[in-house]
Design a protein that fits this description.
- The complex is a heterodimer.
- By secondary structure, chain A is mainly α.
- Chain A has one domain.
- In chain A, about 65% of the residues lie in helices and about 0% in strands.
- A two-stranded antiparallel ribbon of chain A has the order 1-2.
- Chain A is globular, with a radius of gyration of 19 Å.
- In chain B, about 70% of the residues lie in helices and about 0% in strands.
- Chain B is globular and about 60 Å long.
- Classes of the chains: A mainly alpha, B mainly alpha.
- Chains A and B meet through helix 2, helix 4 and helix 9 of A and helix 2, helix 4, helix 7 and helix 9 of B.
Chain lengths: ~210, ~210
Amino acid sequence: MSQLFSKDNRQILTAPLNGDNPIMIQILGICSALAVTAQLEPAIVMGLSVTVITAFSNVIISIIRKTIPNRIRIIIQLVVVAALVTVVSMVLKAFAYDVSVKLSVYVGLIITNCILMGRLEAFAMMNKPWESFLDGIGNGLGYAWILVVIGAVRELLGSGTLLGYTIIPQGAYDAGYVNNGMMTMPAMALILLGIVIGVHRAVNKDIKS
Amino acid sequence: MEHALSLFVRSIFVDNMIFASFLGMCSYLAVSKNVKTSLGLGIAVTFVLLVTVPVDYLLQTKILAEDGLFGTDLTYLSFILFIAVIAGITQLVEMVVERFSPTLYNALGIFLPLIAVNCAIMGASLFMQQRIQMDPATSSQAISSLGDTFVYALGAGIGWTLAIVALAAIREKMAYADVPKPLQGLGIIFITVGLMAMAFMCFSGLSI
């Protein structure tokens, strides 16, 4: 048991959360990170979906890595990912229909999310299944928490709610507070992500741009 | 004809791939360092869009749809089929370009094969799949014929090219600007793209 969570393995799991974050450091998977964060709920669902898909595609590719011919590996990786995305998309449609409507095409676009292909190429093709699983979970969660932060800020400032519950008290509106409708627009997603990256680099000074 | 024109203008400006739906962000940020390469990539993306979207449209309506070849609704296979078509066609385009225009091939380098995992291509096909269900009489976004898919793909590609060339031009100038240290590199680029997206928001009021 202790071997499963050895120091190296914990490092694999935690590095993508901060120092090697897929969004802020490796700049992968930006498209969906920006598009689904107008509200908190789709952001959380999207983050979890990507985590699950990254983990399991990593495991599958890692198991069959020795039998994949090098020339056609991209196609094989794409097919594995596409199959998993199809499953997740059907599960979402069955159990969380409202959210899957809000996510619209971006569930399908997980296939072309660079985080997945990046992890498959860089990690799963040369590591054992268990390590690949941890790497997938770590990178998925590293992606998810940025989505949650941006989603929370945009929903709170844009419509005064979190997960649909009103947070800003009515008294604030009576006193002249106004929701910033700009926050729900695509443009602010980009600017917020820029600010998040800036803050992260200001805090972690050792990271090179 | 009127519908085609408004679909074209809409997909360039109002539904711009980058500024309205954030598609193809990865290569958009990575390649927009100088105007010439980004124009080349823009043209390559437009070209691949012009081939893949109509092919995916035919797949969707003739084979996957309920009244298609197999008589049952096979839409759940669309992710796998679309990505296979895109990967195959990108490979084909790469071989054709290498054969007939080695100069363009060398200029595009690694970016040509990477188009296969560019979400703008997959995204355009998935949007097309959604828009088939819209009513052309009420919505200028609707896609109801093969001709419409060409118009949509061309518009989406031109919109993407416009966005990447504009950002490259700004980045060439920005090399001389004094940016606060933590924002240097990607931070300031995101903020720039955000401001560009704000400028493009003014098109969303167009009634066409």
